[in-house]
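#onboarding

Welcome to the new folks! Below is a worked example of what a typical request in this channel looks like: someone posts a single protein sequence, and someone else replies with the predicted structure as tokens. Don't worry about understanding the tokens yet, we'll cover that in week two.

Example request:
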Amino acid sequence: MPSRLSLTLHLILASFILLVSSTVFAAPKADLWPYWQGSDEANSMPINHQLWQQTLNHYIVQQGEQTLISYHQIDQEGKWQLDRYIREMSKLNPLAYRKAEQFAYWVNLYNALTVKLIVDNYPVKSITKLGGLFSFGPWDDEVVTVNGKKLTLNDIEHRILRPIWQDKRIHYAVNCASLGCPNLQPHAFTASNSNHLLDLAAKQFINSKKGVLSTNNKTQLSSIYDWYQADFGDTTQLQQHLNQYRTTPVVLKTIDYDYDWALNEAK
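Example response:
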């Protein structure tokens, strides 16, 4: 028979887990970090993302609707290449470039950092297993320093990308290493292809079962549309956004939300 103390500890732990799980999906609001607003629109020099493109070329696998990553195949050379890309990006001053270059810079850096987190902790079943003891994932961990500023993934997404560009398609561009997430694009973002890739990523996700699954009068949506309602708007606005990219229009009536946090790994 378990002791009264062990039962008490079990109840406390269970209550804590319930409390954490109830707040896990309270996604951060867009909260501008003013420092990162500057740019040099006269600078036409591109940022070189070739090292990141090589990583994508070597380790991305397309399986049905999913774009998966062969984490188990990333060897020492692959790790070195990924690390080198991140080091090179961290040495740049993104504020010295035009806004279009900055956008691609932040999206690629975010995605590369996410892949590195998985590689550094592999094997892992879910990115949610990373981070501190009482954390749901590593998004608040400092993972890179740019211009002397220590940054977390949440800083990049919610304090730089979302508030500066205010484009809902950003949610289809940044990848959280999970099956429920919009696919990691097999092409590095650049100033010239970003708009095309954003539209492509939106179309892929919204026409996939993990994005929108409509049956009869019931629609299952990705939890992204619940977490970031502030970006996608009310039901009417969300339906309009979805149907902008849907091959078969959807009518939103009864809505459920779902998200698969399992690792986006190619077996």
